[in-house]
Design goal:
Distance between the termini: 15 Å
Largest sheet: none
Strand content: under 5%
Order of helices and strands: HHHHHHHHHHHHHHH
Radius of gyration: 19 Å
Helix content: over 70%
Length: 322
């Protein structure tokens, strides 16, 4: 593997600020970002990436490649929770296995955005319609996870308020803002892009960097939870993203995606949700232990993907897309 890719990725300002946040916790600095600020930053990032994706989607139109990509995204969002559930059932009960499986079937928007910044730094083009794939992959995993709980705890006559489940899956703030921004980008096109460009483009990398500083703080605080997960879940949190990315790259190669889109698709398949799915699982599967599905996604998979995973997946693309 070309380790210069990893070095190049690590030396990006957003990644370095992620390390700075982690270091602040390890050395017991009093660095802290007030709670409302990270929420505002995450909303901005979703708005900016969604709007840009909508503008790019209207440029490219719904051709065969776009449709196949979106179908593949929905397929992975439904299939990943199923096979990860059965892997996790070797060591965990149904509730924890389903919650973690749903977490890894869904996506991390920040990992996707970081991968986009990495591609931009390397001068590799990618299509904005990949944001539509991002939007489509967040919710199905929640539904599949709850179906797995329903099937494997059938003897307990467990019932879900499915109206609340569907509302949480499809109308939570991140999905709603991302899809809404995407549609507004489609409706306004180039004219809208020129109007908002100073806000959506000029500020983007600075806000991403500041957000990753906060993510470093949060991830470092979650590391202590890994003591409760054991070696099995730590290995799972590293190896499953690689497996999912490999499957995603095989699909991307089959469809004929270009290099940049293939990396973003692999990152979507490899990432794990640490916001939307945990919120849904806390509400619908209170028997599951949040320290398991939050700490594995946030303290292991997220840092692994943004530091090593993204360059690793690009190396695979460079190897097989020649």
């Amino acid at each position: 593997m070309d380790f210069s890719l990893i070095v190049s990725n690590i030396l990006n300002p957003p990644i370095l600020f992620f390390f700075l946040g982690m270091t602040a916790i390890f050395v017991k600095s009093d660095l802290e970002i007030p709670p409302p600020v990270p929420k505002l930053l995450s909303l901005y990032l979703l708005f900016a990436i969604g709007f840009k994706g909508g503008v790019e989607l209207i440029k490219s139109g719904l051709n065969q490649e776009v449709i196949l990509t979106l179908l593949a995204a929905m397929l992975m969002a439904c299939v990943v929770p199923i096979y990860t559930f059965f892997i996790l059932k070797w060591k965990l009960d149904t509730y924890d296995a389903a919650a973690i499986a749903a977490t890894y079937g869904s996506i991390s928007a920040v990992t996707f955005i970081t991968a986009g910044a990495f591609l931009t730094e390397l001068g590799i083009q990618y299509d904005g319609y990949m944001v539509a794939a991002l939007a489509l992959m967040e919710s199905p995993a929640i539904i599949v996870g709850l179906i797995l709980v329903s099937i494997f705890t059938a003897d307990e006559k467990r019932e879900f308020a499915w109206s609340e489940v569907l509302q949480e899956a499809f109308l939570n703030s991140s999905v709603f803002l991302l899809v809404g921004s995407l549609l507004i980008g489609v409706l306004t096109g180039e004219r809208g892009w020129h109007v908002l460009e100073p806000f959506t483009q000029g500020l983007f990398y600075g806000i991403l960097t500041f957000f990753l500083l906060d993510m470093g703080l949060v991830a470092a605080r979650r590391i202590k939870d890994l003591q409760k997960t054991g070696v099995f879940l730590i290995l799972f949190a590293i190896l499953i993203p690689i497996l999912n990315a490999g499957i995603g790259l095989a699909i991307a190669k089959f469809i004929g995606m270009p290099r940049g889109d293939s990396l973003l698709f692999a990152v979507l398949c490899a990432s794990a949700s640490y916001i939307a799915v945990p919120a849904a699982m806390r509400m619908t599967v209170p028997e599951a232990n949040p320290s398991l599905y939050v700490s594995t996604a946030l303290a292991v998979t997220f840092p692994f993907n943004i530091i090593v995973g993204i360059p690793l997946y690009l190396y695979g693309i460079n190897l097989f897309w020649r």
